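Quick illustration, no need to memorize.
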Amino acid sequence: MVCVPVICSCVSNPRTVSIPEHYSDPARNVLCPRCNAINDTVYKVDRKRCYICFCCCIPCGHSNPYLACSRCGHNIGNIEIIRCRKCGVGTSCRSNFCPNCGERK
């Protein structure tokens, strides 16, 4: 009897999607906590696929739409975005000062 190894895996690929129905417009001018760039956000969906011996075989589903940084793709999620009164940059951090311009929020 010969034993043949079979390699199976499930891979997730994020894809940018248009604004989903009943969702608000993506936030603009937001400081990303991962790449520290000021960008607009986009909606993304993770599409999952099964691979057998490195060949894509079966789509396994997809995630719910989520907000992500348009530059690095980091999942910003459902966090509260606090805007600076002076420069208008949105941040997710709860600090007294804006990380972009240094003014009090």
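The first strand starts at residue 8 and ends at 17.
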